[in-house]
Specification:
2 copies of one chain form a homodimer. With about 280 residues, the first copy, chain A, is α/β, with parallel strands linked by helices. Chain A folds into 2 domains: about 200 residues, Rossmann fold; about 45 residues, no CATH class. In chain A, about 40% of the residues lie in helices and about 10% in strands. The first copy, chain A, is built from 9 helices and 7 strands, in the order E-H-E-H-E-H-E-H-E-H-H-E-H-E-H-H. In chain A, strands 1-4-3-2-6-7 form a 6-stranded parallel beta sheet, sandwiched between helices. In chain A, helix 8 packs antiparallel against helix 9. The longest helix of chain A is centred in the C-terminal third of the chain and has 22 residues. Chain A starts with 6 loop residues before the first strand and ends in a 12-residue tail after the last helix. At the A-B interface, helix 1, strand 5, helix 6 and helix 7 of A face helix 1, strand 5, helix 6 and helix 7 of B. Strand 5 of chain A pairs antiparallel with strand 5 of chain B, so a sheet runs across the interface.
Chain lengths: ~280, ~280
Amino acid sequence: MANKDPLMITDKDEMRKWSRSMRAQGKTIGLVPTMGYLHEGHLSLIQESHKQTHLTVVSIYINPGQFSPTEDLSTYPSDLLGDIQKLKSVPGGVDVVFNPKNLYDYGNNDNGCGVGLDQEGGKVVSCVETGGMGHETWVRVERLEKDLCGKSRPVFFRGVATIVTKLFNIVEPDVAVFGKKDYQQWRIIKRMVRDLDFGIKVIGTELARDDDGLAKSSRNARLSPDDRQKALSISKSLFKAKFAAENGQNDCQELRNAVIQAIHEAGGKIDYAEVRL
Amino acid sequence: MANKDPLMITDKDEMRKWSRSMRAQGKTIGLVPTMGYLHEGHLSLIQESHKQTHLTVVSIYINPGQFSPTEDLSTYPSDLLGDIQKLKSVPGGVDVVFNPKNLYDYGNNDNGCGVGLDQEGGKVVSCVETGGMGHETWVRVERLEKDLCGKSRPVFFRGVATIVTKLFNIVEPDVAVFGKKDYQQWRIIKRMVRDLDFGIKVIGTELARDDDGLAKSSRNARLSPDDRQKALSISKSLFKAKFAAENGQNDCQELRNAVIQAIHEAGGKIDYAEVRL
């Protein structure tokens, strides 16, 4: 069943203008930030937004600020037309798809050296810096960004916090919805909203899984059947650990080792496995 | 001539509620962020705000996030009642004085260690960290914050960018007015607003000086007559350098050395003197 066509907006001033005109009419706005290549996990975020607000904006933007030059920015999957079809399949559809071209292009060549700082003064770490876009302001959630995924992806959470701040300032939503699949990200966004006093309610939704237990994910959608089978070792071993913990196993080291062993045996390379309270 | 009494607001939710209700009535809002102990420089910012918007909010908040533990947070001058009298003396007065108690107190003891990071994981650098307030999100304008004043005050611009972000998110103004006396700060705020896509117009006003040429400043107001005389070497030598440059002196090193020499001779200790284009 196809619902209404979303309004497509690519310009940030037009986006803000739309939001302000809607708010002036007493409408509340929900934002679902995505990098596209949508799956059922995203669609559940949209349904949550529908419950919270009159209107829903879905942003589709692959953020170069959260990729280091050695990561998969250039091969990150995208399918805008497919995404729009999926958005139309959600009951109620969505009101706006915000699909900007480049949120770090400020339309001039002023690269921030105005008071005499040269390029060498800044750290070159994400695809934004290496792209020479002149952007130099970053939001850092200094403790939560360091550990877990932050260890192997040092620019990631800085880039996420910054692009979410930008999207909040452009869309000016009342509510924003994130998936708890990316649990550390979820905690970082919550902390950032508290610490920077954003007037925005942040909602987290549980992760969606395929029938075999694999988390729904844009990257997981591209796994070969063989790799997919191996990847199941992650959810299987985590569920096993959860069951063990619920039934009295309170040795974190043993829980952790069992997960590591199961993933290793399936041929996986592990960035980290940690038990956190 | 006394103008209207400003509405006094100390609670951030009440502040945002006021702004939203005014905006819903079609009013535009100007924000003048200050640390209090107001002087004519501040009052000129308010007059600029009056030109730009229907309503003006003046925030008075001494921001611990921009002081290192060795700086003058505890002795920074304040005089709220005197400030309110001065605000009433401005033609048109002001609409709101936002005077929060502690913008880093989030009303709980959650210090950000939720995913197992301990206090040691974070850098302890400003009075916010040493105060144990649990705040951990900072806005960094990574290149512009490093040089000039940033060299001798490493936490300063991080603290300024962060508190301005917080005030923007609480007050949600259409326009914000800053003095160009703090020129590096002015450039940093402009860059931050661009890079984080705030929907706020930032206005800079020229600095105000006393008749003898000394910049109007809360800290300068506390100089002894003797120190005040010495401090005049700063403006005098800068005016002299300006005059020399306008009359053909294009050797930056000579311009700089003349300023340094004049301030030294008056007994001043110099953090930096730089010529920037």
